[in-house]
Each structure stands twice: as C-alpha cells, then as structure tokens.
Write a structure and sequence with these properties.
alpha/beta, Aldehyde Dehydrogenase, Chain A, domain 1, Aldehyde Dehydrogenase, Chain A, domain 2, Thiol Ester Dehydrase, Chain A, 7-stranded mixed β-sheet, 6-stranded antiparallel β-sheet, 24% strand, globular, binds NADPH dihydro-nicotinamide-adenine-dinucleotide phosphate, Phenylacetic acid degradation bifunctional protein PaaZ
C-alpha cells in the first residue's frame, strides 16, 4: 500500500503483473473499520488504464494459461490452497475489521480455500488431462460412419471479470476464480469498496506464492465504472451485488448487444418452510429454529442466502417467534469481533446500516410488526470489553418481524440485507408453496420436515423457483452444511429476482467459461481435434501388442484384434455352475426359447466379458498395471452355443497423471461374432506405467 496525503494507505491494485497505486495525491474513497468507524484505508483507481488491464488478460493471461492442461491448472489450485491455508490467521485478523467474527471468517476464508481444494481435486478426477472437453457421445451422421458429429468445449478467448459484493471478500473471489482458472481463462477481480482490502491481502499472498502463470489474476481496487466498456463477446462477467446494479450492468450495450456473457447473483428473499409435522418438541422444529438464528446472525445477516422468510404453519407462528427469541437471548452477543465472546459482528459499513434500517422501516410501514429486537442502536461489546452504544460502529440488533397478512407485498419483495427475518403463517402445503414462490425466484430454501410425503410435495412445488433446496430433518440436522452455505459441488444461484445466474455446481462452473461447439467431420479428423479415438478412425494393428507399450509409447488408435473362439453348451453350463448364475436363459432350453430376446440357451454376458479379457490380454509383466473398471458396457447380439466371438481393443483415451508414474488408458472394446455382428461394446479402463 502507498500512503495518501492524510497518511492513510491506499489499497493497491494488481494489474499487468505489477502492483499499482495512483500517482501523486488523490482524494480516494474512505474505507472504515466496521466496528469503530476509524478510516483504515482508501481506494482509488484514478489514472488506471482498464483497457490495458483487459488486454493484458486477453494476451499474456491467455497465453500462460493456454500452456497448461486442465490437470496442471487443477494442481496449481491445490498448491495455492495449501499456500493460503498456512496464511489464514493474517486474513482472519484483517477480516475482523470488516465486522466478521471467527465463525464468519470460517465461511469466508476457509470456505474460499475449500473451494480451491475442491476444484483442485475435481479438475483432475472429472476432466481429461487435455485442453478440450468432449461433451457426450459422437452422433453418426452418415450411414457408412464416415461423417460424424459431436460437441466440444474450448475456453472462451477473453477474460473472466468478477464484480463482487462486500460480504464475502475472499470466498466471493475464490469461488469465481477457481472454475475460470481451470477452464484456462484469466480473471480480473473487482471487489466491493468496503471490504476490498481483505481481497487485496489475499491477492498479495496469491501473487507472492508464484504459483500462477503471468496475467492469470488481476485485481482492481476501487471503482471500475467503465470496465464493461472494454469487454466484448470473448469475455464473461459474473456479478454479485444489488439487483439495481445488476440490472444497470445487464443493460450495458456491450452486454445487451455486444455479446458479453453476463451472469448475476442479486437480491434473494430466501424461504425456510416448516412442515406441518414439525411441531414444537420435534427435532425438526429445533433444527429449523437453530438454522433461522444462524442465518439471521452469521455475517450479521449480510448473506445473499440468509433466510428472509420463515414460512410456518399459522398455528405455530408464536412458538417459532418465542423459540427464536430465546435462542438469540441465550447465544447472541453483538459487538466488535475482536472482543471476547462476540458472536455477531457489525454490518460492513454505516451506509449499509442505514440501508438496512430504511428497508426495515419500509417493512414496518407496510404492515410488518417487530416481534423481536429494536431498531435502536444496540448495546455492543467493544474490543476493550466495554459494553455500550457505539455511534460510529455499524451495529444492529437481530430483528424478527411478523405479518398479519402473509401476502403483504413488502415481505416478499424487500430485502433488508442484515440480521433481519420475517415469520409468516401458511394454511396448508399448497399455500406454503404459493408463499415461497412469491419471492419471485430465490437462491435457496429449506424444507424442515420428517414426513417424506411433505418433503416430496414441498420440494417439487418450490424447486423451479429456487437454485438449491435443503431438506432438513433429524437425520441430517447435525451433518448438514446448513441453509446458507453454498458448497462447490452444487449450484449456487437462482432464477428471477436472485439474478438468473448459476455459479459453482462442480465442473458445470468450469463449462460456464467455455464455448460449446458442434464439430462435424470424419472419424479421423474428430480424433485429431479431440485427442480421443473415434469409431471408424484409423487403427494401428502393429506387430507389438499395445499392452507392451508404456504410456508414452502408446498412441491413440493402437489396436489389437484376437482370433475367434467358439462357445459351446458345455462352456455355458460350466460357467453357470461355477458362478451360480443359473438364470433360465443359460440353463433351460425351452424357457430360453420362449423369451423374445433369445434363440434358446445363450452365453452369459459376463462369460463373454471374461473370455474377452482372456482373448485380448498380453499376460507377461509389462507396463499395464491394473484394470480398474469398465465403462458403458452394452450386450447387443446374443451368443448361442456354436457361435464364436473375437475382441478388438483400441487405445481410445490416454490420460497421463501429473503426480504419478502412471496414467489412465481407456480401451475401446468391441466383441463381434463369426458374422462380424457386434456382440458387445464397452471401454476397458487400465492404469499404465509411463
Ligand atoms: P452494489 O450492487 O452497489 O455493488 C456490488 C458491486 O458492484 C461492488 O463491487 C460495486 O463496486 C460494483 N459496482 C457498482 N456499480 C458498478 C458499476 N457501474 N460498474 C461496475 N461495478 C459496479 O451492492 P452493494 O455492495 O452496495 O450492496 C448493496 C445491496 O446489494 C445490499 O444491501 C444487498 O441488498 C445486495 N447484495 C446482495 C448480495 C447477493 O449476493 N445477492 C450480496 C451483497 C449485496 P463499488 O463497491 O466500488 O461501488
């Protein structure tokens, strides 16, 4: 950081692979400690050339990432996760200034690092060690198989711009960065002003780790109002923040007409529905109340996934309010996160506090009633342990509202982005579904019930209005990751008011940074483009059995064809007796012949697979280390006694493992009979030494 005229540090940007701060004296925007109001930093982008930042990503960033495969990128994420893991304390420390408590830090800092670990692992397990992803099987487009088509994914040729909200400066950055990085797309991070200094500290660690290729990560600290002016159809923006800003950015000509990919995650009035069976005294009722209090108070309720509407049977509204109030009284201590015992910190800024209070006032004016808490500044514990009202601290009491009219517009449309929730009563399950849908599209809902029929009716009723639904009951109450925590494996995002975007969801989020293209051509050409052997492409039946070749000697298309072997009734009977599989199709001529699929007794499919292994194997010790499974096995033509089979294997996909002395080889395997009819097809999966 460099200092301004008033001696406050300016949060630096990291652009074009160098740290940058404005030259000379700049006014900048103040950034304050959320609990004390003290100015702790300034941000300014005065004089920053955003066009050059974008260009750097598109050129240097694309080039560096383009040298790596999915697996190599995934490994770097794992390395980065390990590096950051050792530096969490420093990030926690800084994060306390944003009002974040220890638990909030676990969500933001550890959660963000967790996303890197998950993608580091998924990228290697679920993607090829390549740069192209083949999507689905090839379609035969000509009768003779000389013309085929399929879909491939390649990375978009521009930059992934993230415009982030203030609430999760680290998780918000890393959950968007990880999938873009695996895809091979350079990222430009634009954090929100009030907490951007925490993101900058994390970026500082990332850069000093020296793990990432040049240009793959840039950071713009401060406002970046003209950023979208420099983007075009090659680029993608993922926005998190208010619906107002999302709508404004969506209308930018480069998005509306220029083809910039834009995904947003904005306001969301998430619901939690209490099933009619979950009456007070049940584990589901307790889990529901616990979840509601957690969601109101974690991050001081500044979570896009927080429960804003608790939809409960009308008869238990008062019970829910009482139980929530009791739990807050028992557990929640508002104050500076640096003070011992504090469980709910400040909102991110005084502006945010004013916004939330104004939203609550509008809700009260529209018919809401305060059932717990007050709008006055609460007694807050300060860092030195003193308790009192802190004028410059963005503290707020948790607030629970009730509504005489469950249909009041305000409860379904106003998001008070703080520790605020409403309890509304429903008549029956249809009514609960109808009320949940009044949120007009949400990120997440919880359904708390131990009745499978209730779960089925509620979940199928509300699913299309939500990006994620948690079914909470006594079986998962302890192990559940919670209503408000998106997990990297599953989708985060939601329809309608929630922004209509989708993030995370495992490898899906990598694909969001890639273009799907239909490619058509001959099997040889599609093999060349994808690196995966296609049926009908050339095969190399050389003198050397492909099992005798090491991973690096083996080439796609290397193949082996066996001799024919005849199957007798004796073989089939012996296999039936040996394995105990005496299913009538293999043992009873009359019953087998009556079956529409068989001419009479036929060989077991597993007999054919076992024989095939015996026909294609090269038994001496060699580079093939193990067979770890079969994919997509299909039995097509029955084999009767007297028929013969042969097997042809072809090296289809070769995947070197980055960290092991071996790799994976998938062998296209085809069994044919004496008439060259296809008997069975599958892929044999082996591990082969390098
Ligand atoms: P904003 O929508 O104002 O800001 C979000 C991000 O967008 C910030 O990084 C901001 O940068 C940036 N931004 C704003 N205008 C532009 C622009 N013209 N061009 C480029 N970037 C821009 O939201 P706030 O953070 O102020 O939060 C306001 C409300 O948003 C909250 O009260 C809450 O209701 C909602 N919200 C929703 C979240 C969700 O996940 N669904 C998360 C957080 C907030 P800068 O900080 O520099 O202005």
């Amino acid at each position: 950081m460099t200092s301004t005229a008033v001696g406050v540090e300016i949060v630096p940007s990291f652009v074009q692979d160098a740290w940058w701060t404005p030259e000379g004296e700049v006014a900048g925007t103040d950034v304050r400690d959320a609990s004390t109001g003290a100015v702790i930093a300034k941000v300014s982008t005065e004089g920053l050339d955003l066009a050059a930042v974008v260009e750097h990503g598109r050129t240097v960033g694309q080039a560096g990432l383009g040298k790596l495969t999915f697996h190599q990128r995934a490994l770097k994420l794992k390395e980065l996760a390990q590096y950051l893991n050792g530096r969490r304390e420093a990030l926690y420390e800084l994060s306390h200034r944003t009002g974040a408590t220890k638990i909030d830090n676990l969500i933001d800092v550890d959660g963000g690092i967790g996303v890197l670990f998950t993608f580091g692992s998924k990228g290697r397990r679920e993607l090829p060690n390549a740069q192209v992803i083949v999507d689905g099987p090839a379609e035969r487009l000509a009768k003779d198989g000389s013309f085929v088509g399929e879909h491939i994914y390649t990375r978009i040729p521009g930059v992934a711009v993230q415009i982030n909200a203030f609430n999760f400066p680290i998780w918000g950055m890393l959950e968007k960065f990880a999938p873009a990085f695996i895809a091979g797309v350079p990222t430009i991070v634009k954090p929100a002003t009030p907490t951007g200094y925490v993101a900058a500290a994390a970026v500082k660690f990332i850069i000093e780790s020296n793990i990432l290729p040049a240009g793959s990560l840039q950071l713009v600290s401060g406002s970046a109002r003209d950023l979208l002016d420099h983007l075009d159809y090659r680029d993608a923006v993922s926005f998190t923040g208010s619906a107002g800003t999302a709508n404004m950015l969506k209308a930018h000509p480069n998005v509306a007409r220029g083809g910039v990919r834009f995904t947003s995650e904005a306001d969301s009035l998430n619901a939690a529905i209490l099933g009619p069976d979950a009456v007070p005294g049940t584990p589901e009722f307790d889990a529901f109340v616990k979840s509601l209090v957690t969601e109101m108070t974690a991050k001081a309720g500044q979570k896009c996934t927080s429960i804003r509407r608790a939809i409960v049977p009308r008869a238990v509204v008062d019970d829910v309010v009482a139980a929530v109030g009791a739990r807050i009284n028992e557990r929640v201590v508002v104050g500076d996160p640096r003070a011992e015992g504090v469980t709910m910190g400040a909102l991110a800024s005084l502006e945010q506090l004013a916004d939330v209070r104004a939203a609550v006032q509008s809700m009260l004016d529209a018919g809401g009633e305060l059932a717990y808490g007050t709008l006055d500044s609460p007694q807050a514990k300060q860092a030195d342990g003193a308790v009192g009202v802190v004028e410059d601290g963005a503290f707020m009491s948790p607030l629970l509202l009730t509504w005489a009219d469950a249909d009041a517009d305000a409860v379904h449309s106003l998001e008070a982005f703080g520790p605020v929730s409403s309890v509304i009563g429903y008549e029956d399950l249809d009514d609960a579904v109808r009320l949940a849908a009044k949120g007009a599209g949400s990120l997440v809902a919880t359904v708390a019930t131990n009745d499978p029929a209730v779960a089925q009716q509620l979940v199928t009723g509300i699913a299309a209005h939500h990006g994620r639904v948690l079914v909470l009951n006594r079986e998962d109450a302890k192990t559940s990751t919670g209503h408000g925590s998106p997990v990297p494996h599953l989708i985060h995002g939601g329809p309608g008011r929630a922004g209509g975007g989708e993030e995370l969801g495992g490898i899906r989020s990598v694909l969001h940074h890639m273009q799907r293209t239909a490619i058509q051509g001959s099997p040889n050409m599609l093999t060349a483009v994808t690196g995966v052997w296609h049926t009908g492409a050339d095969q190399n039946f050389g003198d050397v059995h492909p099992f005798r070749k090491s991973l690096y000697e083996l080439k796609i298309g290397d193949a082996f064809r066996s001799e024919l072997r005849q199957v007798t009734l004796k073989d089939i009977t012996a296999f039936a007796n040996e394995t105990g599989d005496t299913f009538y199709a293999h043992t009873n001529q009359e019953a087998a012949a009556a079956n529409p699929f068989f001419p009479g007794i036929v060989a077991h499919g597993y007999l054919l697979l076992s024989w095939a292994a015996g026909l294609f194997v090269s038994p001496e010790p060699g580079p093939v280390l193990a067979n770890y499974g079969l994919d997509d096995a299909r039995f097509i033509t029955p084999v009767a006694a007297g028929d013969s089979i042969r097997v042809t294997i072809t090296a289809k996909k070769i995947t070197p493992r980055e960290t092991d002395e071996y790799g994976e080889v998938a062998w296209d395997t085809v069994l044919t009979n004496q008439n060259d009819e296809i008997v069975a097809t599958y892929d044999v999966l082996t591990l082969v030494a390098k």
